[in-house]
Design a protein that fits this description.
Blueprint (H helix, E strand, L loop, with lengths): L3 E9 L9 E3 L2 E3 L2 H14 L3 E6 L7 H5 L3 H8 L5 E3 L9 H10 L4 E2 L3 E3 L4 E2 L4 E6 L2 E9 L3 H4 L6 E3 L3 H15 L6 E7 L2 H10 L8 E4 L10 E3 L2 E5 L6 E10 L4 E11 L9 H18 L2 E4 L4 E2 L8 H10 L7 E5 L7 E2 L2 E3 H7 L6 E7 H11 L12 E3 L3 E6 L4 E7 L2 E2 L5 E7 H5 L1 H5 L3 H5 L5 E4 L2 H11 L11 E4 L1
Parallel strand pairs: 1-4, 4-5, 5-6, 10-12, 12-13, 13-15, 20-28, 25-30
Antiparallel strand pairs: 1-16, 2-3, 7-8, 7-11, 9-10, 14-15, 16-17, 18-22, 19-21, 20-24, 23-28, 23-29, 25-26, 26-27
Length: 487
């Protein structure tokens, strides 16, 4: 009797509204129509196929933000995922709206660690048992701790605050809901590769977790990482790539006997377009183009933002724009607030909004030189270089020289002068970062409030950006050594 079953698991993460194709080296790459085409082709050619999404479907495009995620759910419904988990950006439109969007989804959304604080009731179904080809696969959803940062004002919502608690919850679910008929257990996570490693190391082998399919850190992997005997995989970001697991499972001995994983590029060579998805996407694009396809300005050239963890051209431009005639000395622009890796020279209204989709207010605070030094030390700690912390772009006048080996700030200047402990500096900070001041900047906000009562000085970041872009043509920016990091 044949006891070996074959299973293919396709997985995406961090699509961030990357619905439209791009042209790279003369070849059309990515976009939902080709992604759907690839998934459809695999489903037709393979007998047992699962498609899973590891969070952050939302944010990053006008098509998503214009409809507050409703368009995204409609489009993703047509990908027909078998299961998805939520990422930190799924809560950007509010928990109540997310629960409404869940009702619009024609696919199951699992999450084990968001709960109502009043009665500890879970907001979502924590797991699902998928039955494919006679196999039963238990899928558990785990979300990043960063969700707490996005729901600071939603006092009734809580989440596990550490990985140890999350690992324990996995054990509880496995003990209670894994049956003698369960063949595989999959964690569908949105906590980043570094946290996936830590979580895998904490899991008791008797829980029976067979693999972790992750997201959040936008990691492009060449091969799975194996921690505590558990393969960890992730498929970068966007729709130009999809992860693919081809495995063989021994149903008699209850074990995976062959596990192969790769990332497949989505382009003209690997996938045909799905006409149904293309027609649906075009209907949304026509509506948004009518409203948002107008030129705001022209930059001197294309500017880049290749990595969040370094000084960038676009980072300097945006920080300087927000410090223009401001009531503060230094603007701290969250690197993650800038969503495009490159933009320009022609800037349409749509480009502008997609590049800075988190239209925060900006707070004015005053810090001492000693507090400023402590903040910089915290921002540049070791976790910064693996995408596990918030990083910042600084406006003109800031000079930081940091040694990663010794963990020392070798130079800290403002407008050419050494920053002394008793110096006073006024800083601008986006609302998201203000609300998470202690965690992101390493100094108690209550301590900073003693210097001066913080106040909102900009109600819309994008109002400032649009006005400056509209009245200043030919803008340019360069990396000029505001942040210098060396080993």
């Amino acid at each position: 009797m044949e006891t070996i079953e074959k299973l293919t698991i396709l997985h995406s993460n961090d699509m961030h509204g990357d619905f439209l194709p791009t042209v790279k080296d003369g070849k059309e790459t990515g976009g939902l129509p080709r992604l759907a085409g690839y998934i459809n082709a695999v489903r037709q050619s393979r007998e047992n196929v699962i498609y899973a999404i590891a969070g952050d479907m939302f944010r990053g495009s006008i098509i998503d933000s214009e409809y507050q995620g409703l368009s995204t759910i409609d489009l993703v419904n047509n990908l027909r995922p078998d299961v998805a988990t939520i990422g930190n950006h799924e809560v950007d439109y509010g928990i109540a709206h997310l629960l409404f969007l869940e009702k619009c989804a024609r696919f199951p959304i699992v999450n084990a660690d968001l709960f109502v604080t009043m009665n500890n009731g879970r907001l979502f179904t924590p797991y699902i048992n998928l039955e494919v080809g006679g196999m039963r696969i238990l899928v558990i959803g785990i979300l990043t701790q960063e969700v707490l940062a996005s729901t600071k004002q939603e006092k009734v919502i809580g989440s596990f605050i550490d990985l140890k608690s999350a690992a324990r919850e996995v054990g509880i679910i496995c003990d209670n809901y894994r049956t003698i008929h369960t063949d595989m257990t999959v964690l569908l996570t949105h906590i980043g590769l570094e946290k996936d490693r830590e979580l895998a190391a904490m899991l008791d082998p008797d829980y029976g977790v067979d693999m972790i399919i992750g997201g959040h850190s936008h990691t492009f992997m060449e091969e799975p990482e194996i921690v505590n005997g558990i393969p960890i995989v992730q498929a970068g970001t966007g729709t130009s790539i999809i992860g693919r697991i081809d495995l063989q499972y021994d149903t008699e001995n209850k074990k995976i006997v062959d596990f192969k994983w790769k990332c497949v590029p989505i382009n003209e060579d690997t996938a045909d377009k799905d006409p149904v998805m293309e027609e649906l996407l075009d209907s949304y694009r026509t509506e948004t183009d009518r409203k948002y396809k107008r030129v705001v300005t022209r930059w001197a050239r294309k500017l880049t933002h290749p990595s969040r963890e370094q000084e960038t051209e676009m980072g300097n431009l945006y920080a300087d724009v927000l410090a223009w005639e401001a009531s503060y000395d230094i603007m701290l622009m969250g690197s993650g607030s800038i969503r495009k890796k490159e933009m320009g020279p022609v800037i349409e209204y749509q480009d502008m909004l997609e590049n800075t989709p988190f239209d925060d207010c900006v707070w004015l605070l005053e810090v001492t030189g000693a507090q400023w030094r402590k903040m910089i030390q915290h921002i540049l700690r070791d976790e910064a270089w693996v995408g596990e912390t918030e990083f910042y772009q600084f406006s003109k006048g800031v000079r930081i020289k940091y040694n990663r080996t010794t963990h020392e700030i070798e130079e800290l200047k403002f407008r050419g002068e050494d920053v002394t402990d008793d110096m006073r500096l006024k800083i601008g900070l986006q609302n998201y970062h203000y609300k998470n001041f202690d965690a992101f900047l390493g100094v108690p906000l209550e301590e900073v409030k003693k210097n001066m009562r913080p106040r909102v000085v900009i109600t819309s970041l994008n109002n400032i950006v649009e006005e400056y872009f509209a009245t200043n043509d030919g803008l340019d920016a360069h990396v000029e050594g505001r942040i210098e990091v060396h080993d």
